[in-house]
């Protein structure tokens, strides 16, 4: 007797995106995407230069402005350990296991967004290099001991969020986002 859509959303996001499209036009979007592509290519080149990573994503504007990469060779740490250490530095660089039949492949992913400047890209590169140097110095037992359990991850996030909200510094900080 009636037809409804569950989980419907308002149109505000669509309207806002339409406004941006009209305001910037095709040339504006092309300019933005070229900048994002240059930053993603720079990040991929720098990661590849370390000799520690193999880049899995396309470059030169083929596809999305993101960098997917994996560790090269057998190490006593994996992509999840790199992601966890980067999180300690304030970066959220997700680590993934691939789909069935290739689940042995793990990767890290950085999505280059408009607010991810070249300066922030350089900061991320330095932090990744520092994390790799640190993990190389540690032995397998130390790395294993530092791996958080799922329960401790939630406790850490809860404690960090609570401490951050209670901090008086929050209002003084410039609004930035370290999510990649």
UniProtKB/TrEMBL annotation:
Q: Which GO terms describe its cellular component?
A: cytosol
One GO MF term, please? pyridoxal phosphate binding
What sort of enzyme, by top EC class, is this? lyase
A family per Pfam: Pyridoxal_deC
Among InterPro entries, the record links this protein to: Glutamate_decarboxylase, PyrdxlP-dep_de-COase, PyrdxlP-dep_Trfase, PyrdxlP-dep_Trfase_major
Q: In which domain of life is the source organism classified?
A: Eukaryota
- Entry keyword Lipid metabolism: no
Give the E.C. number(s): 4.1.1.15
Does the record bear rRNA-binding in its keywords? no
BP terms from Gene Ontology: L-glutamate catabolic process
Family according to the record? Belongs to the group II decarboxylase family.
Name-wise, this protein is glutamate decarboxylase
What is the phylogenetic placement of the source species in the record?
Answer: Eukaryota, Fungi, Fungi incertae sedis, Mucoromycota, Mucoromycotina
